[in-house]
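Journal club side-thread
Mid-discussion, someone asked how the predicted structure for our own chain would compare to the paper's figures. Pasting it here so we can look after the session.
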Amino acid sequence: MSDGSARARLEDPGAPQAEAEALRAAYGLSFTGAAVLARQRPATGDLERWLDPKLSHLTPPAGMVDRDAATERIARAIREREKICVFGDYDCDGITACAIMTSVIGALGGQATPLLATRTEGAYGLSIPALARVQASGATLLVTCDCGSSDHERIETARRAGIDTVVIDHHLVPKEPLPALAFLNPHRPECRFPFKHLASCGLALSMGAALRQALGKELDLRPLLDLVAIGTVADVAPLVGDNRALVRAGLRVLATGARPGVRALADLARIDLSRGMSTEDIGYRVAPRLNAPGRLGDPDESLQLLLSRDPATAAGLAASIEQAQLQRRVVQGKMVEEALSDIREQGLDALAGVVIARQGWHPGVVGIVAGKVAEALGKPTIAIALEGATGRGSVRGPSGFPLYDALCLARGELAGFGGHQAAAGVHVRSERLDALRASWDKACAELGKTVPERESGLAARLDPRDPLSAVLADLERFEPFGEGNPQPLLYLHEVMGRSTRNLKGHLKLELSLDGQPLTGIYFGMGEQAAELAGARLSMSGALRRNTFAGGAELQVRGIGPRVG
């Protein structure tokens, strides 16, 4: 980020809105917390429910098209002890949805064989090799999780082979009718279920509730909420409405460490579960580890980890996953460096949308590369791993940019694509790369005009009348933070810097805010430690409790700082 943009984002957000005082009185908030809520509260809906979301607030599922048909077919398969194959995509949402459906079917007395897509099969979702594995399992019923909406040919092949298919997915829906027995997806135009943002893991949990009722059995689904929280946050689903209630409840389950696999991962990621787990922990520590085996090859270890009930087995699987995570970081670092170098040399940063590709890139890591480039440039990005005449790529972009719509405009230069507005995947032909670059640039320029300019992320000025602990308590009431409910950034004015140091290239500050101790961490700014020592500083960032490696200090992390 340039100094100019950093200064712009450091502007004092000013006095709180008039509404803030009423909110402070009504909800017992700090001055700062009330100012944050006045700016960040949902535009519509019940504020009481937003502040205290409960599972009892979940949207009734009655309007979900094909839910009854899906329930009847899976319930019959459970009763008759048919072989059921549960097939999930290779990312966190697909893995957790597959684990949920497998657990529910098994708990209700059914026979479920879980399988996952693999990148080595050459395609997202139910590819031809994947369908061959399904058929080899001897299943008469296939339940897809987080894939299937675009797999028309393979589902038709399965139907002709005597395999019924129930699709559970949340990706955007092509116009062609899907030859599945039941197709559970809120994005179907005829679906009257009003909440459209459930990830596949949330839909799987809903199916679990339907199956429990259909079979007349008691089954506590709450222990599965940890998987719903992981899948929802990792898939960057908006944390509003039903997702807010599901993730809030799931975070409580995660904090118990009841699932051996989650506890083993938390130990390796140095997350102190006694202090809880946050959406940030999921997004930056848990999800990347669960995704690592699938990025480099076979995601089955992550699925086995989540399904394991034995702590020793879970610990072994987690250790193997940690090695995959370390390997993934090395591959990722090299690819991001190469991507940014190519962008500079080719002048691609001047375009409205970026397409970057290389022969030999690892197809499992291009999603991270696309995300890093999109974050660095603030532009929609397609990163492609080429292998001879074809390539597979991932699409990422700035928050709020409609990636799927842009791909629809550029579809003439694509061999195939799928996904949703926040993330997508593409297949390309190498000889069409230049044409794709031009088409993508045109599509992004056209749609960029329709995307409203994002407001400053600064939510409020930290009020000196507030104890930091009270402000933090208020912010915790506003969680979970993520897509659709961003972490509030606070502006701190003229804070005394007691000490500064360069911590492995990062700036670590010991601060005093009207006598209250506070630390600051600013990544990549370690070289400024000497010039900022002893100064009064203005800065902004997220106020949080730093629980890494068992810590408990209050910390501000984000933008800045600057002198004065």
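Post-session note: The chain has three domains: 3-47+456-563, 62-319, 347-448.
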